[in-house]
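ok here's Delta-like protein:
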Amino acid sequence: MAHRSICLFITLLAALHQASPSGVFELKLQEFNNRKGLTGNVNCCKGSSASNYGLPCECKTFFRVCLKHYQAKISPEPPCTYGSALTPVLGSNSFSIPDAETFSNPMRFPFAFTWPGTFSLIIEALHAEPTDDLSTDNPDRLISRLATQRHLTVGDEWSQDVHTSSHTELKYSYRFVCDEHYYGEGCSVFCRPRDDAFGHFSCGEKGEKLCNPGWKGAYCTE
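and the structure:
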């Protein structure tokens, strides 16, 4: 009876793990170019009349990221069903974006369900004036907007991409990886090696249980 109860407990535990897949979408901003220092409406970031006085246009740039489900016609507005992020000011006009302590780069968007293999991504570059004002509701602050949808398989390799507008260029990369102990195309297969009363096995490349020598059964408990 006790042995049967243990088996039922193991089965339930495994089912719970199977129902809670785990992975993370990672987005890395790499380089942004806005050589003329213009906003999306082709105005100088210091004001439309600044260039008339010989003043340089300086766009103090931060980014808003919205990750959502696949949409044939992408809406940049919330809800961001898979997550959102807002960076601090990362530079002026043209700059590289290294890994930094001020914000997470790559940005990480955890998933607690099966990765669907598709997504929509919005990345907005905005001008901060003053520098500590990171509000995103003023359309005059928008420098550029990327809105794209993609198919993406699970894997460690980064997908490289570039977005260009009339006066800007953004280089970025992304990937989706499974958390530790999760496997499969959607990170829905759970396998954690163990050698105790609940099982005696290691894990294969696809998350299959590989019984240790001398053990057999679905959970290597026999």
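+1. Residues 152 and 167 are 28 Å apart (CA to CA).
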